[in-house]
Amino acid sequence: MVSFACFPAVRCLTLSYMKTSALTIRLDRALARQLTALAKRLGRSRSDIARDALRRQLAILQFEEARRSIMPFAEARGYLTDEDVFRDVS
Fold first, then answer.
1. Per-residue pLDDT tens for 23-49?
2. What's the pLDDT band for 70 if we cut at 50, 70, 90?
3. Per-residue pLDDT at 2 exceeds 60
4. CA–CA dist 86, 49 (Å, integer)
5. 80 Cβ contact list (under 8 Å, min separation 6)
6. Angle between the 29-42 and 46-76 helix axes, to the nearest 10 degrees?
7. Rg of the chain on CA atoms, in Å
């Protein structure tokens, strides 16, 4: 099933087979204004922008976590900086 219910000027596509869950967050006024203004400029919903930002932040945090867990092994082999890695892979 597909429905098109959203804002009057914006057409949203909702697919019934997509499983979703809700998350409520509190934003300070400045962040809320920034999010609203960006959503308006891009013609996207605030939720869509927040989801995209959360996906990106989670990817960054997962990368940093992987990097931290690998660093002892890299350091033991003489890789102390990004330049050390780039030197050997370039």
1. 899 999 999 999 999 999 999 999 999
2. very high
3. no
4. 34
5. 74
6. 110
7. 21
Sheet strands (E) in the chain:
2-3, 14-15
Cβ–Cβ < 8 Å for 35, 25: no
Is the distance from CB of 6 to CB of 12 less than 8 angstroms?
yes
Q: Sorting pLDDT into bands at 50, 70 and 90, what band is 1?
A: very low
The whole model's pTM is what? 0.66
Cα 17 from chain centre: 22
Local structure of residue 10 (DSSP, 8 states): S
**Residue 49 near residue 38 (C-beta atoms within 8 A):** yes
Q: Which residue in 18, 28, 4, 5 sits closest to 51, CA to CA?
A: 18
